[in-house]
Specification:
There is one protein chain. By secondary structure, the chain is an alpha/beta fold. 34% of the residues lie in helices and 22% in strands. It contains 28 helices and 39 strands. The chain has an eight-stranded mixed beta sheet with strand order 1-2-3-4-5-6-8-7, with helices on both faces. β1 and β2 form a beta hairpin. α9 packs parallel to α10 and α27 crosses α28.
C-alpha cells in the first residue's frame, strides 16, 4: 500500500474548525499514520451497535491490518478525515475511489464509496453532517464527482445524514442493504441546507455564551478594584439568575467566599458544571486557565485580558495559540481584550462586562468591536437625555475586542431568530469575511432592521488584532454593496442610535411622503428643508402657532395620520414660557394617544431643549416614572429650558415587550437628525418591499457557455494570468452576445486609409496610448471623418500634437450612433466577491465617483435599479428635452456581463468603455478582459471557522 509521500504531501489546507449543532466546536483534519493509537482508543469507545452498522457484522475490535488501512492514505484515491475534540477522535469518515464495477480504482474514475463512524456520546451533534460537507469538498478537489454509500435499513440516522444533505441522489435496495448514490456538485438545495445548519450551529454557539447557567470569573482579586473583581461585582449587582463563582489561584485555601459568592483556587475545584468563564488574568497565565476550563467542560470563554494582537507580533502569535487551544476543547471565545457581554433578559440578567451598570432592558441587539465605542453606545441608549429619548433599551450586548473567534457574523446568526431582539445595531472596525457578512446581513435585514456604522474607514488598515481579508474596493463601493444587502449604513454612532431608536418602536413608513406640524413656523421650515435634502417628499408644514395646546397637537396629529397622502409625521415643538412640566406630560400623552389610533405610520418629534417633553414621551407604564413622579435619586428641574441629559441615572425597569407597552415616540434635538433617521427608515422599507421579489437571472439562447469555457482554458494554458488581446477579447465577449466595434491599428497614414476603406466611412481616429485613452477632452479623438482627405488631415494633426504614431498607438473605428457614453466594469474582489459596476464615462465616474455597484449574479430587477441609481441617471432618460436612450439594451448588456463573470470565475476583470447608448441600441467601442485562475470561493465550500 502506498504511503502519503508516494502520492501527495499532507494536505494541511483540509484542516478546519467547525461549529457543531449544539454550539460546540470540533477540529476536522486528515487521518495520518501517526493516528493509530487515537483510532484504536476511539473505536473502543464506540458501541457494538454502531460498529455493527458500520461493518454489517459484529466487529468488536480493529485488527492491525484494519488500523494500517484506516491510517494510511494517499490523499487522492483514499482519504480519511477525523473530527477531534481535545485532540481525541470523536468521529471518522473515509472515501475509497472505485470504478464502474465497484472495485478500487484510480483517476480518472469519478466515483468513491464513503463510510462514517461516530462515537455514540457525540451522535446527534451534527458531526456526520459536518464531515460529509468536508469529505465532499475534498473529493471534488480530487476530481471525484459522485459518492456511493451502503447502509443497513435500521441505520436511520446515517440514512438521514445523506438524504438531508440536499445533493441530487438516487436510492436502491438490494440484498438487505440500502444503496445511496449522489452527485457532489453543490445544488441550490444543498447550499440552503448548509446555510441553515450553519445558522443553527453558530446561533447556538453564541447562545451558550449569552445564556449560561453558571459563570466563573477567573482572576477575581481579593482586594477591591481590578478587572476581575469589577466584572464579578457587575455580575452580582445585575442579579444574575444562575450560579457565580470567583476563581483565583492566589486565594488562601481557607477562603470559601468572596463578595457573597463561592470562591475557589481553580475551576477544577468547582463541583458543578461551569458554562461560561470570564478570564481576567495576565496573558501569560491564560493558557493554563484555558486548559483547566477545557478539562472541566466549560462551554465558552470571555477573555478580557489584554496583551494579544493589539500589542504586536508576539501578541498576535499568542492570540492564534489562544484560539487553537480553546477550540481544541470545543470552546468558543469572545475577545481577547474584550469589554464583555450583557444579556438583560429577566431569566438571565447577565452583566459579564466592565460596564458598571446594567443597561435598560429592551429590544435592541448591540455589537461593538471597540470597548470604548461600546461604552459610548450603552451610555447613549441608557440615558433618557442626550437628544434622543425612548425607553427602548438593550436585549443583548457583545463587545468582541480583538475578535479572534466570535465575530459580528456569529452574533448576527444569533440575533436573526432571537425573539427578544427587534433591531440590530453594529459598530464594526473591520469585516473579516465580507462575502459571508453580506449574505447574513441580507437574510437578517429581511426579518429585522440592521444598522451599521463602520469605523476606520479611511485608515487604510484594520485595527490591530483584527484578522481581515484584503479588499481592493473603495469604501464607497463596500457601502453600496452593504446597502444592496439591506444594511442601513450610517456614518456616526449618533446616527446609529438615532436610527435604532426609531426602528425599535415605530412602524416602517410606507413611502417618502412626510407631514410636518408643530408650534414653530421656523422649526417646521427647517424640517421641510431637511426632508428635501434627504430625498423625502414633505407636505407643506402646518403651523399650530406658539399658543397651541395639547388638544390642538392631538387633533392635528390625528388628521395627519388619517391623511392617505402622508406616510410619516414629524412633530416640531418649542418650549412654552414658564413652568411647563405639566404641559409637557399632557403634550406627550396627547401625541401618544393620537399615534396609537393609527399604528401603521411612524411619528417623530423634533424638540428644542425641551427636557420635560423628551422625558414624558419616553415614559410608559411599568417602564418609566409617570409624569410628576420623579425617579429615586434624581433631581426634578421644573424650568422648561433644562438640559436634556439632566437625568444622571435611569430607574430600574422591566423589559419592554412589543405587545403590552404604550407606543413610544422618539424625540430628537435637531430636525436634521430626526429627518435623517426617517430617511434611512424609508429607504429600508423600500428595500424590504423590493427584496420580496428580487427578480431572476435571465437565460439567453445565444450564450455559448461551453465554447467560452474551452476558449478560457486554452488561453489560461499560456500562463497564470493575462490580459487578452483585442481579437481574443472580442471572441470571448462574442460568446456571450456582446459585440465590440472593430478597431483596426493604424501605425501609418496609409494603414489608416486602408482600415477606413475596410470599415467604411465615416470613421473615427483615436489615440489609444494609456495617457490618452478615453480622454477625448485632450484632443486624442477625431470623429465623423467622412473621407480619406479628412482622415489624413486628422492623422497629421494628432501626430503633430502628441508625437510619433508609435507613441500614440492610433486606431481607426467605424462611427457608432450618437448617444450617452457609459462604462461597465466587473471585477472579482478577493474579499467581497464578484462586483458589477456602472456609470457614465468621463468626469461623472472618474472625478465624481458616480458609480453604482451590485454583487454578481445580477437579476433583471437589479439591472434595472443599477441604471437608475447613479446621480447622473437623468441624462439617460431625456434630461432637459434630450432624447431618452435605449436603457433596456443597456440593462441586457449588464446582465450578459454578469453572466459571463458568474459562469466563468477565471474572468477576474472586464471593462467596457465607452459603451455608447443611443436611442435604439448601443455600441461597445472599447473592451478589455483579464483572466486568472479563479480565487477560492469559501462561501461555496464546507462550513469552517476562520483559520488560525
Amino acid at each position: 500500500m502506498q504511503s502519503a509521500s508516494d502520492r501527495h504531501e499532507y494536505p494541511a489546507h483540509w484542516e478546519a474548525d467547525v461549529v457543531l449543532r449544539d454550539g460546540g466546536t470540533a477540529r476536522i483534519r486528515p487521518i495520518t499514520v501517526d493516528d493509530a493509537e487515537r483510532l484504536v482508543s476511539f473505536y473502543e469507545q464506540v458501541s457494538d451497535e454502531s460498529k455493527y452498522y458500520r461493518f454489517f457484522a459484529p466487529y468488536p475490535r480493529l485488527s492491525a491490518k484494519d488500523v494500517h488501512r484506516f491510517t494510511h492514505h494517499d490523499f487522492v484515491d483514499r482519504v480519511g478525515l477525523a473530527a477531534t475534540v481535545g485532540g481525541e477522535f470523536i468521529a471518522t469518515v473515509r472515501y475509497d475511489r472505485i470504478g464502474p464495477d465497484g472495485t478500487p480504482a484510480s483517476a480518472p474514475a469519478e466515483e468513491a464509496e464513503v463510510a462514517f463512524l461516530v462515537q455514540d456520546a457525540h451522535q446527534g451533534r451534527g458531526v456526520a453532517s459536518a464531515l460529509l460537507e468536508h469529505i465532499a469538498a475534498v473529493a471534488r478537489e480530487r476530481d471525484i464527482r459522485r459518492f456511493a454509500a451502503e447502509v443497513l435499513p435500521a441505520n436511520t440516522k446515517m440514512i438521514k445524514v445523506f438524504t438531508d444533505a440536499g445533493y441530487t441522489q438516487k436510492r436502491s435496495f438490494e440484498d438487505g442493504v440500502v444503496r445511496l448514490e449522489f452527485d457532489l456538485e453543490p445544488t441550490d438545495r444543498s447550499l440552503a441546507v448548509q446555510y441553515a445548519r450553519e445558522q443553527r450551529a453558530e446561533a447556538r454557539s453564541v447562545r451558550r455564551l449569552l445564556v449560561p447557567g453558571s459563570v466563573a470569573v477567573i482572576g477575581a482579586g481579593r482586594t477591591p478594584g481590578g478587572v476581575g473583581r469589577s466584572v464579578l461585582g457587575n455580575i452580582r449587582d445585575a442579579g444574575f439568575a444562575g450560579r457565580v463563582y470567583a476563581v483565583n489561584k492566589a486565594f488562601p485555601e481557607d477562603l470559601k467566599e468572596l463578595d457573597g459568592v463561592p470562591a475557589h483556587r481553580c475551576v477544577r475545584d468547582i463541583e458543578e458544571q461551569v458554562d461560561l468563564a470570564v478570564v481576567a488574568v495576565p496573558a501569560e497565565y491564560v493558557p493554563e486557565v484555558v486548559t483547566e476550563c477545557g478539562e472541566h467542560g466549560v462551554q465558552g470563554l470571555v477573555v478580557v485580558s489584554a496583551g494579544y494582537a493589539e500589542s504586536g507580533p508576539d501578541g498576535r502569535e499568542r492570540q492564534r495559540e489562544l484560539v487553537r487551544h480553546a477550540r481544541a476543547y470545543g470552546m468558543r471565545i469572545i475577545g481577547p481584550n474584550a469589554f464583555g457581554i450583557i444579556n438583560t433578559a429577566d431569566d438571565v440578567r447577565l452583566n459579564a462586562s466592565l460596564a458598571p451598570q446594567m443597561p435598560r432592558p429592551g429590544r435592541i441587539g448591540l455589537f461593538a468591536q471597540s470597548g470604548a465605542i461600546g461604552i459610548a453606545l450603552l451610555s447613549r441608549l441608557h440615558r433618557r437625555g442626550g437628544g434622543v429619548t425612548g425607553v427602548t433599551g438593550v436585549s443583548t450586548f457583545v463587545s468582541s475586542g480583538n475578535r479572534a473567534d466570535v465575530s459580528g457574523n456569529d452574533v448576527l446568526q444569533y440575533w436573526y431568530d432571537d425573539p427578544d431582539t427587534d433591531v440590530v445595531l453594529m459598530y464594526l472596525e473591520s469585516i473579516g469575511n465580507p462575502r459571508k457578512f453580506t449574505r447574513l446581513a441580507r437574510r437578517t435585514a429581511a426579518a429585522k432592521p440592521l444598522v451599521v456604522v463602520q469605523g476606520a474607514r479611511h485608515g487604510g488598515a484594520a485595527p490591530q488584532g483584527h484578522a481581515v481579508r484584503a479588499t481592493r474596493l473603495p469604501h464607497t463601493t463596500v457601502s453600496a454593496l452593504l446597502r444592496q444587502a439591506g444594511v442601513i449604513r450610517v456614518d456616526t454612532i449618533t446616527e446609529l442610535v438615532d436610527a435604532g431608536l426609531l426602528l425599535a418602536r415605530q412602524p416602517l413608513p410606507a413611502g417618502p411622503r412626510v407631514a410636518i406640524l408643530g408650534n414653530s413656523e421656523s422649526l417646521g421650515l427647517l424640517t421641510y428643508d431637511a426632508c428635501l435634502a434627504e430625498g423625502l417628499r414633505p407636505l407643506p408644514p402646518l403651523d399650530l402657532t406658539t399658543g397651541a395646546s395639547a388638544a390642538d397637537f392631538h387633533a392635528a396629529l390625528s388628521r395627519a395620520l388619517a391623511d392617505e397622502t402622508c406616510d410619516a409625521v414629524v412633530v416640531t415643538a418649542i418650549p412654552a414660557i414658564g413652568d411647563a412640566t405639566t404641559g409637557d406630560a399632557e403634550l406627550a400623552q396627547a401625541l401618544r394617544s393620537a399615534a396609537e389610533r393609527v399604528p401603521g405610520k411612524p411619528v417623530l418629534v423634533v424638540h428644542v431643549e425641551l427636557g420635560g417633553l423628551a422625558e414624558a414621551l419616553s415614559a410608559a407604564a411599568s417602564t418609566a416614572p409617570r409624569a410628576g413622579t420623579p425617579a429615586s435619586g434624581t433631581t426634578v428641574r421644573p424650568h422648561p429650558f433644562r438640559p436634556l441629559d439632566f437625568l444622571a441615572e435611569a430607574p430600574a425597569e422591566q423589559p419592554d415587550t412589543a405587545d403590552d407597552t404604550p407606543r413610544l415616540i422618539p424625540a430628537y434635538p435637531a430636525a436634521e437628525r430626526a429627518v435623517r433617521a426617517l430617511a434611512e427608515a424609508v429607504k429600508y422599507s423600500q428595500w424590504r418591499r423590493e427584496s420580496a421579489d428580487p427578480g431572476k437571472v435571465p437565460e439567453y439562447e445565444d450564450i455559448d457557455e461551453k465554447g467560452a469555457a474551452r476558449l478560457i482554458d486554452g488561453l489560461l494554458a499560456r500562463g497564470q494570468g493575462l490580459t487578452l488581446g483585442t481579437d481574443e477579447t472580442c471572441d470571448l465577449l462574442g460568446k456571450y452576445g456582446i459585440q465590440v466595434h472593430r478597431a483596426l491599428h493604424a501605425p501609418t497614414p496609409d494603414a489608416a486609409a486602408e482600415a477606413a476603406r475596410t470599415l467604411g466611412y465615416p470613421v473615427a481616429l483615436k489615440a489609444t496610448a494609456p495617457h490618452l485613452r478615453h480622454r477625448a477632452d485632450l484632443g486624442g479623438v477625431r470623429l465623423d471623418l467622412a473621407d480619406e482627405e479628412q482622415l489624413r488631415r486628422a492623422y497629421a494633426e494628432l501626430t503633430a500634437l502628441f508625437g510619433k504614431p508609435e507613441e500614440l498607438r492610433p486606431v481607426v473605428q467605424s462611427m457608432a450612433p450618437r448617444g450617452v457614453d457609459t462604462v461597465v466594469r466587473a471585477v472579482i474582489d478577493p474579499a467581497a466577491g464578484a462586483v458589477l459596476s456602472f456609470g457614465l464615462a468621463g468626469a461623472a465616474s472618474q472625478l465624481l465617483g458616480d458609480m453604482a455597484h451590485r454583487l454578481i449574479p445580477v437579476t433583471d430587477r437589479e439591472a434595472t435599479s443599477i441604471v437608475r441609481s447613479i446621480r447622473t441617471a437623468p441624462l439617460l432618460f431625456g434630461w432637459r428635452g434630450s432624447a431618452p436612450v435605449d436603457t433596456p439594451a443597456l440593462e441586457e448588456l449588464l446582465l450578459r456581463v454578469s453572466r459571463l463573470v458568474d459562469d466563468h470565475p477565471e474572468v477576474v476583470a472586464v471593462t467596457l468603455e465607452p459603451v455608447v447608448v443611443a436611442t435604439h441600441g448601443l455600441s461597445v467601442l472599447g473592451a478589455s478582459v483579464r483572466l486568472a485562475p479563479p480565487p477560492a470561493r469559501d462561501d461555496l465550500g464546507p462550513r469552517t471557522l476562520p483559520a488560525y
